[in-house]
Specification:
Length: 118
């Protein structure tokens, strides 16, 4: 009986020390202040997307060469689901790993702020 009480006490105490930062760590060195298209979003798109989504015949007929192209793709409704690898969307970059959590967070912040061209 005492062993059972000790086990329950240990289990309860183990849960007591759980905190949000330990359970859901934030990406290291991910500065999400002052996110802009030119400083944050465009470099992500350029290094991960334009190899396939640019030129005269971009794959999927989706060009991501400039601000207007990226905004049109986001407004098309599939962009965020694709870069987040959500079910029902074509995971992008195709054949590559998912963008880092920090890169996705930068794009989410930019979209949530109205996609300013700065």
């Amino acid at each position: 009986m005492i062993s059972l009480a000790m086990a329950v006490l240990l289990l309860l105490q183990a849960c007591y020390n759980d905190n949000y930062q330990d359970l859901y760590p934030q990406p290291l060195n991910c500065d999400t202040t002052n996110v802009t298209f030119g400083k944050n979003v465009l470099p992500i798109i350029t290094s991960n997307c334009t190899r396939c989504h640019s030129g005269a015949v971009p794959l999927g007929n989706i060009s991501l060469e400039n601000y207007n192209d990226v905004v049109a793709s986001v407004n098309g409704g599939r962009f965020m689901g694709s870069i987040k690898h959500e079910q029902g969307y074509s995971a992008m970059p195709k054949g590559g790993g998912k963008l880092s959590d920090c890169d996705i967070k930068h794009i989410e912040i930019w979209v949530a702020s109205g996609m300013p061209n700065n």
